[in-house]
TrEMBL record:
Solute-binding protein family 3/N-terminal domain span: 28-246
PANTHER family, sorted: MEMBRANE-BOUND LYTIC MUREIN TRANSGLYCOSYLASE F
Domain of life: Bacteria
Alphabetically ordered keywords of this record: Signal
Name of protein: Transporter substrate-binding domain-containing protein
Family the UniProt entry places it in: Belongs to the bacterial solute-binding protein 3 family.
Signal peptide: 1-23
Transmembrane segments: none
Keyword Signal: yes
The organism of origin for this protein: Pseudoalteromonas spongiae
Protein's UniProt keywords contain DNA-binding: no
Amino acid sequence: MTTFLFRFAMFFLLTVYTYTATAQTGNNIKCGMATGYPPFQFIENNQPTGFDYDVLTRVLQQVNQELYLVADTWDEVVNHLRFAELDCVTGMEINPLREKYFDFTIPYYFRYTTVFVKEDSKDIEIVRDLYGKKISGDKHSLTETIWQEKHIKDNFRLIQTESKEQAMLMLANGETTAAIMPRSVGLYLAKQYGVKVKIVQSNYRGTPVAIAVRKGNKVLLDKLNSALQTLLSSGQLDTLQSNYQD
């Protein structure tokens, strides 16, 4: 699929799923998820799915509340929450910048960002080999933070993308030399698109992932934390996560 066709398809998909929801009642929680982040949050066969989506639905079952779902690009979902158009967003990585705007539940797993290149890239074996090269990926990744700490970020030509699919397709089409994304996401998409990849760098520092709520919404935060603690203690989330392993 060409980049143009991919972008057209994603535009159609996002238009359809910007507001996908159950019937609204007084017992629902309006929560957001991204559409292009498999296997964590995505649309498949016209239905929302993924590990983060499954966690959210189980958490709300625990607190006996219905889900009103908003599925959109990641940046739009975050903006919906920031401007009080949502109650929560599932599967958000916790970092200091986001903690200024949102409150977070206890983490329910960790993501490990990874730098992928094509398997046949014989001249790319270590991160230094990517100096001066175009790299696709979304902004504020842990990899980008680590490169900033090591004062090497300016050696790369980073290209921000709206979705992980777009980042992987840019790598597949030769528009970029590498792509940054969580390991599970990269391996899933590479298999999906028939791209043979290898890993140049996989960060040892995992990023905690939680459900984000509007700043100061302690009532909802306490409800979600109680449900998450029950699911974690019972091992239900470990069993669920095993369905999405690499």
